[in-house]
Amino acid sequence: SAYEAGEHESFMRKEILEQPTTAQAVLRGRLDERFGTAHLGGLDMDARELRAVRRVKILGCGSAYYVGQMGAALIEELARIPADAEAASEFRYRNPVIEPDTLYVAVSQSGETIDTLLAVQEVRRKGGRCVGLVNVVGSAIARECDGGIYLHAGPEVAVASTKALTNMFLAFALLALQLGRVRDLSIADGKRLVAGLERLPGQIEEVLAGEAELVEVAKDLAEAKSLFFIGRVRGFPVAREGAQKFKEISYRHAEAYQTSELKHGPLALIDPDVPTVALVPHDELAERNVGALHEIEARKGPLVVITHEGVDLGEVSARRIVVPRNEPELDPILLNVPLQLLAYHAAQHLGHDIDKPRNLAKSVTVE
Ligand code: AGP
């Protein structure tokens, strides 16, 4: 049947609101509660091959690259395998070393992004193994890879990717869990994460239920010419993705920074006209993050803080957006959902064509 925006004013909003359902789809049939692991038949790798992986290199473009950074963090944390993400558009131009015991992972919603496809071909030409995290079944990247995980997010029409991104993160969580459980991740930790993943779709729903509270915040952010998105460690790729989404549809300059790096330069830009959206999850860095908020406040920079219940912001005056807590490793996904809504409502307020932002295509299939 035709996929239509229906009663929604745009595909982007429809796709944001679908996430509780589409998130279930990527998890369905893949979680194992008894052994605290995931089963990813499509990877086509047995336990011996999974154990032989010494490094993971993730390749994607734009938002798929940023979610790749979230995925790399998950894999390092859960599987204790060194992992990183790289922009697929740069990869083939630097004559990369392809190692036989590295697992290459290509990430793409469309499965047709030319830069990602050519990166996969570079890996395979040099004898590497590349698996895909792809949404569109039978797409070029899916066919080029040795195996992979389909994202089951359903068709995504809006140029600004939302539900596919969420499912990319969840697919990385499944991969990290399976890689972890054939190595040193304990069954207790495995079960803890399986339970966390099962709670996530409902918690995404909770965040979406708070949409109305975000509209005014988004309108204020839309008035700024330039803004910062800041986060640390797990929160930094979320900040990058939040800035990207904001730029794409609001046409405002948005820059992501590690909170810890502010004092090394960009603090010079903070003033009453430059708002900062800060990610401050309830984790071991919360206190340090709050310290950075004080620095911003002292320069009269307006603050929007995406945080958890129980994080003490002290005297800092900020607009606080609270998301539910899950297992800390899975924080990025719930922190990201309000950023989707902020970008959406800012663009809506500015009267932009949300589904088809200027200068951009849904998938970039020519170099
Ligand atoms: C996301 O909002 C962007 N439109 C863009 O960065 C996108 O994620 C990128 O072009 C990759 O597309 P793909 O997932 O289809 O490969």
TrEMBL record:
GO terms for molecular function: glutamine-fructose-6-phosphate transaminase (isomerizing) activity. It is an enzyme of class 2 (transferase). The keyword Repeat applies. Residues 46-185, 217-357 form the SIS domain. It comes from the Bacteria. It catalyses: D-fructose 6-phosphate + L-glutamine = D-glucosamine 6-phosphate + L-glutamate. Keywords: Aminotransferase, Glutamine amidotransferase, Repeat, Transferase. Its EC number is 2.6.1.16. This is Glutamine--fructose-6-phosphate aminotransferase [isomerizing]. It comes from Nocardioides cavernae. The gene is glmS.
